[in-house]
Amino acid sequence: MTANSPLYDDPALMRFYDLENGWGEDTRLCARMAAQATSVLDLGCGTGLLLSSLPGTIRLAGVDPADAMLEVARSRPGGRHVTWIEGDARSVRLGETFDLIVMTGHAFQVFLTDKDQLAVLETIAAHLAPRGCFIFDTRNPAAHEWQEWTPDASRRTFADPQLGLIEAWNDVAFDETTDIACYDTVYRRMADGKMWQAQAGIRFSTRSHVATLMADAGLKADQWLGDWSGALWTPESPEIIPVGGLR
């Protein structure tokens, strides 16, 4: 989502994105919601996995600041039915409204200040139809998920079609004064040890803080989910997922 991280705009690193972030509960739930909509806006659409799977009879738009991501989105089967926009979710204005606005993949967390998070929520409000619905996710800080992003705990392997077997891991530093986790992602080609590495930062916000910013932006949550299976939020939930509309 952020244009300043090589994870998203460096093709050498971005090639691993879909291999690690394919279809999941988030995209499946959003696809089901889209079946009831006539128009969908995906903020932080990434490589366009969700939108390119939706029927071309729906008005579809995807916004992302990373051109490398959008190049993949444009080339997908079904991508020609989508309007792809290289833009910043804090400031983009399309001059149209949508029945459904989604922001998945914890894209909300890449905005590290109240000012930036409020700007993103104001973008949602500016593009939401009067009876439209929005949904986005942010990790629940009470779950301390960043504690799992150590090299030993996060080490994993997967196969790249061209590069072969890839080993990946993370490392993280969490700042309790800002609630920002700065994490490294490392990929190593196991055949020869060639490595790719990048750093990114994400902010962990509480449900009450998100609710306050939403209210300031003119949004309200009709429901709070605690994960993408549809379970209602509890203080122990791994996710904070507001589903709602305009105030």
Give the topology string: H per helix, E per strand: HHHHEEHEEHEEHEEEEHEE
The pLDDT mean sits at 95
The description of the largest β-sheet is: 8 strands, mixed
The gross shape turns out to be globular
Unreliable stretches covering 5 or more consecutive residues:
none
Percent of residues in β-strands:
25-35%
Number of helices: 8
Our measurement of the CA-to-CA distance between the termini, rounded to an integer number of angstroms, reads 27 Å
Structural class: alpha/beta
Overall helicity: 10-25%
Find the count of extended strands (DSSP E, 2+ residues). Answer: 12
Radius of gyration: 18 Å
3D structure, described in words:
The longest helix is centred in the middle third of the chain and has 14 residues, at 114-127. The protein is α/β, with parallel strands linked by helices and 247 residues long. Helices cover 24% and strands 34% of the residues. α6 crosses α8. Strands 1, 2, 3, 4, 5, 6, 11 and 12 form an eight-stranded mixed beta sheet that branches. Strands 7-8-9-10 form a four-stranded antiparallel beta sheet. It has helices spanning 6-9, 11-14, 17-20, 25-34, 67-75, 114-127, 151-154, 207-217; strands at 39-43, 59-64, 82-86, 98-103, 128-136, 138-139, 156-160, 164-175, 180-189, 195-203, 219-225, 239-246.
